[in-house]
Amino acid sequence: MRSEPVVQVQALVKRYGTKTAVDGLDLVAGAGVTAVLGPNGAGKTTTVETCGGYRKPDSGTVRVLGLDPVRQSAALRPRIGVMLQSGGVYSGARADEMLRHVAKLHAHPLDVDGLIERLGLGGCGRTAYRRLSGGQQQRLALAMAVVGRPELVFLDEPTAGLDPQARRATWDLLRDLRRDGVSVILTTHYMDEAEQLADDVAIVDAGRVIAQGTPEELCRGGAENTLRFTGRPGLDVGSLLKALPVDCTAAELTPGSYRVAGKVNPQLLATVTSWCAQHGVMPDRISVERHTLEDVFLELTGKELRS
Amino acid sequence: MTTTVGAYAPKPGAAPLPRMIAAQAVLETRMLLRNGEQLLLTVVIPTLLLVLFSTVDIVDTGAGEAVDFLAPGVLALAVMSTAFTGQAIATGFERRYGVLKRLASSPLPRWGLMTAKTASVLITEILQIALLTVIAFALGWSPHGNPLAVLLLLILGTAAFSGLGLLMAGTLKAEATLAAANLVFLLLLVGGGVIVPLDEFPSGAQDVLGLLPISALSDGLRDVLRHGAGMPWGDLGILAVWAALGLGAAGRFFRWE
Fold first, then answer.
1. What is the pLDDT of residues A107-116, one digit of tens each?
2. By the CB < 8 Å criterion, does A175 face chain B?
3. ipTM of this predicted complex?
4. What is the DSSP letter of A53?
5. Closest in B14, B31, B101 to A88, CB measured
6. Chain B touched by A181 (CB under 8 Å)
7. From 3.40.50.300, 3.40.30.10, 3.50.50.60, 2.60.40.790, which CATH number describes the A7-220 domain?
8. With a cut of 50, which residues of chain B have pLDDT below it?
């Protein structure tokens, strides 16, 4: 689904006082779903809000659908939908009332009743926004972002705090949007969300994009994979290591349980099994562990807690 | 759940401007009329003051029927309660809860939002004035004067109070706006010639209090409606200066989030 970029960010810098939130960020997003992953404070929200025209870059350029989000805001706004992380609704408004209102601001809105049913907002009834549950508020914000039939939607953590059913409903809606040609930029903490939905993933840390690619590319590239097998305890790991390529490691983790780490490919698998054959070892439960996006993410951004 | 392919196919576009502004004005008015505290301020308090002070002799309102003194003051109070206090508090919380931010990414332009807010204030004022006028007539009110002068005073008063209210809402925290707007409402209610004639105050204080927008509005309305005076140019001038200062400062310093 690659074509003309829908979002083009070049060398974006944004500071708040002395704190640099975004520090020379480059991001090109094409059609389809792009997930922006990153730890708290990485600059995801600032980047998305700059794309939405909320913030002026301190330096760098931002183009959304080819337009400058600040200077050409009037032309851009009808074409995009934005879901903020929280709020955005009159505290006394009812869910359907607010959604109908946003629909009225657009020329060809979606069917509001259908959207209410689809996102399970029918149960909100006459309850005021401030008394809705967090999940209902989230789903309303999502509905408000898509009701105007935009070409591109920005979703800032659309499934944060949702229960599994609501999360699934959100994912299904995003898949349908993608199928119908709506581009989506979403920020998320959830790796499975990015793996499930995204055509393209950008990992952001400390205000920069530190890796970008399809989920498969990110999981394959660079990261070390592992191969595990069980056999008799006390095998000669040194002999196994000699048979392996130089950049591999091998270890007996617990008696009879072995791990080979390195670039796992068919050759490596063949090397290990033929070594086992030579040594009369039946490698039970041999398995290759592909790295998940979470492994890649933690490898790139570190495992320490961020302040 | 599945939907037909193409159900979400992009078809972007802004609604026509008049439709957007009308929709926004209707929503804002509905939010205001649904809010209990706002109704207390805009309807209950002015009505109570009008009825109470017209029927019970608490304040010396000078010669003639008390209602003839009070009705113009309470109309001025109604304008202040909606354009200043109500609008400041509502807008302050809209800013706090990201409503202004969210609307800023909708097709409705900012000036369209401000136009809708003004329309909503005017709709509310018309409802207030209709109600208070009926009650005042029931209490024996006999107004005089030029309706055009009354209209001009109400419009300039609304502009002056809107500017000050939006300035407060756009620069202070929502809680601070809530407290300050109510405090200012109370102070101006007492010291702005609404129910207590300004000549009850020491003469030095009178000169200063007379320059307040509420005093100019209540004094101007009273001159016309009670005494049948012509155009109250002095009061109109004071309101025009407040309007220019307030709206100018609000335009300059208003922060949307």
1. 999 999 999 9
2. no
3. 0.88
4. T
5. B101
6. yes
7. 3.40.50.300
8. none
